[in-house]
From TrEMBL:
InterPro entries: Ergot_Alk_Oxidoreductase, NAD(P)-bd_dom, NAD(P)-bd_dom_sf
Any Pfam family matching the protein: NAD_binding_10
Stretches assigned to the NAD(P)-binding domain: 7-176
Record organism: Microbacterium dextranolyticum
Membrane-crossing residue ranges in chain numbering: none
Superkingdom classification of source: Bacteria
Record-given protein name: Nucleotide-diphosphate-sugar epimerase
Length: 278
């Protein structure tokens, strides 16, 4: 059996490659810039772009299963290329946003829905991983923590259930090494609801020094985020925070059901990435 991991340079994709190798699976890996991949010699590396299905060529030769990100514009063409190449199972990193009311009218939800629908329509067996907000979104605070020991936020009381990228990868590996998750769409969250302020406090506890939350207006936050993130995402991030104040987002038990292990905590994510904040 051979598995192709598209986006092996990514946080989730890289952990999927590592997890598959631990299972003794023959892994191939792609990146749009494969020279940046640092992988053991037995992992075959290819250049491929999800937006250019023809670029997959030899990478798909003899491959049974594929892990992909949803960052693509023509999911119909890509799905057809996978079917044509004889891929029998596609595992997509989607998003829990597809399950939210009004998702098909929402910028974020609709792009994942389109990819899920294209894969379904192609007839290939599939698993849609639907994570909520990633713990790694807190990496955006690293410069403020390192610089001023402060994190500016417009909605510090926004509630999230941050999920560790390695939990998402663990479920991807289960999907890619058996048939148990074919046709399934597990929702993946962390184990606990945390406000943004509690997440900042967790970072402070792990690095062993105080980190202040500085309250911003939406306009101030928007100006700040625009330096790093495209405008459409800035609007989405602020809207998500605004709507999450006082919310009680669902805590999913799918990770534990699938892997038999408790999900990793936000604190574990901070400990795993403490160098970002020190
Ligand atoms: N942040 C959240 O809260 C959240 C929640 C739900 C879902 N998601 C989704 O999760 C994903 C982010 O996961 P992550 O943290 O692992 O990302 P990451 O570390 O930023 O890596 C993104 C990966 O996607 C690959 N990629 C992007 N566009 C590609 C293309 N056109 N062709 C081939 N590969 C492409 C990149 O590969 P190369 O650059 O090497 O080619 C890279 O390996 C996004 O799709 C996001 O929408 C995020």
């Amino acid at each position: 059996m051979s598995v192709l991991v598209v986006g092996a340079s990514g946080a989730v994709g890289g952990a999927v490659v590592a997890g598959l190798r631990e299972h003794g699976v023959a892994v191939r890996a792609t990146s749009r810039t494969p020279q940046k991949l640092v992988l053991p010699g037995e992992v075959q590396v290819f250049a491929a772009d999800l937006n250019r299905p023809a670029s997959f060529g030899a990478a798909l030769d003899g491959v049974d299963r594929v892990f992909i990100y949803a960052d693509l514009d023509e999911p119909e063409a890509l799905s057809a290329a996978f079917v044509e190449a004889g891929v029998r199972h596609v595992v997509l990193l989607s998003s829990s946003s597809v399950t939210f009311p009004g998702a098909s009218d929402d910028f974020n939800g609709s792009r994942f829905i389109r990819v899920e629908r294209a894969i379904e329509s192609s007839g290939v067996a599939h698993t849609f991983l639907r994570p909520g907000g990633f713990a790694s979104n807190a990496a955006r605070w690293s410069w403020g923590v390192r610089g001023d020991s402060a994190v500016p936020l417009p909605y510090p009381e926004a509630v999230q259930v941050p999920v560790h990228e390695r939990d998402i990868a663990d479920v991807a590996v289960v999907a890619l090494t058996g048939d148990a998750l074919i046709g399934k769409a597990p929702i993946l969250t962390g184990p606990e609801r945390l406000t943004l302020r509690q997440q900042v406090d967790t970072i402070a506890a792990v690095i062993g020094r105080p980190v202040e939350v500085i309250e911003q207006t939406e306009a101030e936050s928007s100006t700040m985020l625009s330096q790093y993130v495209p405008d459409v995402w800035v609007r989405q991030i602020i809207k998500d925070w605004r709507e999450a104040v006082g919310a009680t987002p669902a805590v999913s038990h799918d990770y534990e059901r699938i892997t038999g292990k408790p999900p990793r905590t936000f604190r574990t994510w901070v400990e795993d990435h403490a160098e970002l904040f020190r």
